[in-house]
């Protein structure tokens, strides 16, 4: 049931404050400002993490790489499942494999799970469908509790996956002694603000719709981000191409001058995801390179970022200021809405885009 919404996708986008609140409440003790321990995983004995997934689930894992490395000082290899399964890489017995899948049936992700298991690794699966094959074959199953996701383009499953991964990274940091109780409390309190911040992000919808009207006229679009905003740029580009069929690429902002800058002209919109964090200045200098070549910029940032950016000819979406750790969950929303409204203007079949299946059970 779509309720008052025109498509399942936009309904699911709007469900995110509630869904993520529920998921965080399941994995974090908000009263004690602590992460709940993850049953059956002793992070103090793990020396390396391999995160494997496809598509949007892979981008959730990519964000988590930054969290695990920073919060738990745990090295993370992040892989696309179709590559992981055939690469025959050596895996440490003291390593943990995390596979992420909304459906729990993705063929390549399942094959990766079986490969890692064969190498003697323990497997934690982050899934939405609890009765799925991946859930069954994993040693530890961590449900994302997003409820059924109908839109082929994944939205609420993505942010719910991020919520689980963030909570697990905090629990890992505590188990490994890389964060103290005060730092843990600060992180948990930051994440507990996410549902409220997501509500604020949803209020940008009218402004995003106006931007989408123009975006629907372009052939190509570039997304840039740095740090955890880099996987959000990748996710933004994936969303746009999936449902609007506009060619979009996500790039690490620092890679711009290593090639993609050649594409910039007055026709090329560039979506820059840049909260005012410790890499903001670097991203802005990349944005200036775009502006100097006449590129059209859509900047997604906060008040401080928009003041510090000081570039004309920028369309700016302003989110509330928030701790750096939580930005991926909140910045996902404008990026999803931009893709959604662009697709609506294009008149595509948003919930059932051409050539795509909700669950990819063949490789
Ligand atoms: O069910 P899974 O999470 O394993 O699916 C992985 C991808 O197929 C999926 O995320 C796909 O990229 C979506 N269409 C993204 O919107």
Automatic annotation (TrEMBL):
Residues of the SIS domain: 34-178, 211-353
Entry EC number(s): 2.6.1.16
GO molecular function: carbohydrate derivative binding; glutamine-fructose-6-phosphate transaminase (isomerizing) activity
UniProt protein name: Glutamine--fructose-6-phosphate aminotransferase [isomerizing]
Gene Ontology biological-process annotations: amino sugar biosynthetic process; carbohydrate metabolic process; fructose 6-phosphate metabolic process; protein N-linked glycosylation; UDP-N-acetylglucosamine metabolic process
Residues annotated as catalytic: 358 (for fru-6p isomerization activity)
Signal sequence range: none
Annotated keywords: Aminotransferase, Cytoplasm, Glutamine amidotransferase, Repeat, Transferase
Location relative to the cell: Cytoplasm
Job of this protein: Catalyzes the first step in hexosamine metabolism, converting fructose-6P into glucosamine-6P using glutamine as a nitrogen source.
Catalytic reaction equation(s): D-fructose 6-phosphate + L-glutamine = D-glucosamine 6-phosphate + L-glutamate
Predominant place of localization: cytoplasm
One cellular component (GO) term of this entry: cytosol
Subunit structure: Homodimer.
Organism, scientific name: Kaistia soli DSM 19436
């Amino acid at each position: 049931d779509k309720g008052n919404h025109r498509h399942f996708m936009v309904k699911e986008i709007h469900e995110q404050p509630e869904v993520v609140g529920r998921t965080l409440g399941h994995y974090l003790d908000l009263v004690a400002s602590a992460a709940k321990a993850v049953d059956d995983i002793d992070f103090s004995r793990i020396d390396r993490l391999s995160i494997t997934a496809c598509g949007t689930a892979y981008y959730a894992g990519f964000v988590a790489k930054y969290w695990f490395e920073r919060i738990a000082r745990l090295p993370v290899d992040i892989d696309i499942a179709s590559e992981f399964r055939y690469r025959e890489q050596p895996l440490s017995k003291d390593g943990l494999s995390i596979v992420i899948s909304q459906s729990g049936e993705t063929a390549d992700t399942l094959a990766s799970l079986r490969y890692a298991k064969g190498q003697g690794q323990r497997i934690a699966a982050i899934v939405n469908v609890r009765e799925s094959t991946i859930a069954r074959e994993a040693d530890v199953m961590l449900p994302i509790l997003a409820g059924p996701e109908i839109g082929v383009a994944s939205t609420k499953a993505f942010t719910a996956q991020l919520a689980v991964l963030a909570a697990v990274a905090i629990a890992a940091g505590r188990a490994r002694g890389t964060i103290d109780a005060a730092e843990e409390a600060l992180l948990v309190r930051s994440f507990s603000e996410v549902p409220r911040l997501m509500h604020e992000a949803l209020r940008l919808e009218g402004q995003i719709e106006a931007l989408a009207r123009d975006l629907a006229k372009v052939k190509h679009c570039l997304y840039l981000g740095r740090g955890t905003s880099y996987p959000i740029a990748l996710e933004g580009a994936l969303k746009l191409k999936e449902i609007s069929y506009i060619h979009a690429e996500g790039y690490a902002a620092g890679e711009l001058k290593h090639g993609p800058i050649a594409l910039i002209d007055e026709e090329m919109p560039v979506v820059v995801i840049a909260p005012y964090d410790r890499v903001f200045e670097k991203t802005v200098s990349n944005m200036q390179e775009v502006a100097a070549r006449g590129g059209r910029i859509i900047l997604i940032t906060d008040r401080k970022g928009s003041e510090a950016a000081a570039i004309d000819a920028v369309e700016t979406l302003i989110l509330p200021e928030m701790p750096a750790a939580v930005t991926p969950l909140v910045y996902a929303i404008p990026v999803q809405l931009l893709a959604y409204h662009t697709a609506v203007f294009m008149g595509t079949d948003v919930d059932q885009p051409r050539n795509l299946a909700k669950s990819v059970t063949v490789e």
